[in-house]
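User: Reviewer 2 asked us to show a designed sequence for the structure in our supplementary figure. I'm pasting the structure tokens here. Could you produce the per-position amino acids so we can include them in the response letter?
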């Protein structure tokens, strides 16, 4: 498990581009480029070591292109600077989540009460089905 890389240094390696946002937007929809696309080249990163690159490629394989480019976009805000902040936060969250490892689950045994409730539920379900069939000489309660 590789360590979390220096995210501010990774942000300096990212390139930001602004394009026109899709959808409705009023008067400025065709004039102002507010949508921001963050592009990060995983394979050519100088901040990441080889182990971290492999980890990112493994964990984010569905977000990374064949060339090793990670693209994230944001168009929720009305300004380019707002969308730039949003896309940077998304990038930080994605990288942090990729390096997060879940603790292994410890197996536990069912409690006596839960076993009792499960068996009681099974008996009631069984009784329902016997009642539906019309066969009165079915199960008997013990």
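Assistant: Here is a per-position design you can include in the supplement:
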């Amino acid at each position: 498990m590789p360590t979390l890389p220096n995210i501010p240094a990774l942000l300096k390696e990212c390139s930001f581009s602004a394009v026109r946002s899709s959808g409705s937007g009023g008067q400025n929809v065709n004039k102002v480029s507010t949508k921001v696309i963050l592009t990060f080249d995983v394979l050519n990163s100088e901040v990441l070591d080889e182990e971290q690159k492999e980890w990112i490629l493994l964990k984010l394989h569905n977000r990374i292109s064949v060339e090793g480019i990670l693209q994230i976009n944001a168009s929720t805000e009305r300004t380019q600077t707002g969308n730039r902040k949003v896309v940077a936060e998304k990038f930080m969250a994605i990288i942090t989540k990729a390096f997060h490892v879940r603790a292994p689950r410890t197996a536990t045994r069912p409690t006596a009460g839960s076993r009792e409730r499960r068996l009681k539920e099974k008996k009631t379900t069984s009784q329902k089905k016997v009642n539906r069939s019309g066969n009165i000489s079915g199960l008997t309660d013990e």
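For the response letter, you might also mention the following. Residues 7-98 form a domain with the Double Stranded RNA Binding Domain fold (CATH 3.30.160.20). The mean pLDDT is 88.
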